Amino acid sequence: MATLSPFRNQGIAQALLQRVAKRAVDDYGVKTISAHVWESNTEGRQWYAKHGFKEVHFEENYYRKLNPDGAWVVERPIGIADFLN
Known about the structure:
By secondary structure, the protein is α+β, with helices and mostly antiparallel strands. The protein is about 30% helix and about 25% strand.
């Protein structure tokens, strides 16, 4: 998931995350959301932290065309906030 710079801080990514979480629970019974975040994406890592995600694992050599090439796996349980509009 990515948001172009001019459209950040408007709630677009949060709305998308809520919609995906609701569908994951309703259709598949998912209880946890996880994502990979490029290690140098400070803004992205801060966004995930702000939305309750924890960095749980680091994967080296995850991205083939980026330098550095590592990614943080972030995750959090799905909660009631994912169903609020």
